[in-house]
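Whether sequence alone determines local backbone shape is best considered at the level of individual chains. Part of our work consisted of pairing the sequence of a single chain with a tokenised description of its backbone. This step matters because it turns folding into a mapping between discrete strings. For completeness, the protein is quoted in full, as a sequence line and a line of structure tokens:

_____
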Amino acid sequence: MKIKLVYLVATALHFCAIESAFAIQLQPAGEAEAFKAGGYLLTDNKWHSECNEPTERTFVPARIESVTDLNGDGLPEAIISEGGVACYGNTGSGFTVVSEQSNNTWKPMLSSSGIPRILKTKGANGWPDIEIGGPGFCFSVWRWNGKSYEINRYEYKGKTCKVN
């Protein structure tokens, strides 16, 4: 029961953490390409990461939580979430951000255990900072440097904090 409660809370927080100005609808082929770019596999009509087995008791299949243009380039980004304590520990949730490229392929941008929250602050090329939450009171904020997302700072409720 405790494991289910942790995942339900994490899923609810995750859903609330994804804010979008507008939603974009992907066609089924586009969804499949987004999942594949994020490293997800399809087994028995359920998408999952390599570390998350569909037979695991706490497994919750990967799903596309939101599709928006995060960096203002006119192309969509998808945030994919997945659940499972065996794969994601106490947070019970993991995510991947993938971005459609101008050649119609998809590129993974950031993948982690935890609950993403898209922030208003931005890194290179208009990419938003992403806070990765979970259990605790001091969360990492990742910023795009033009090549990859890297840890930029730690915050709790918008205020700087230190990880012990």
User: Anything to note?
Assistant: Residues 6 and 90 are 7 Å apart (CA to CA). Residues 2-17 form the longest helix (16 residues). The chain has a mean pLDDT of 88.
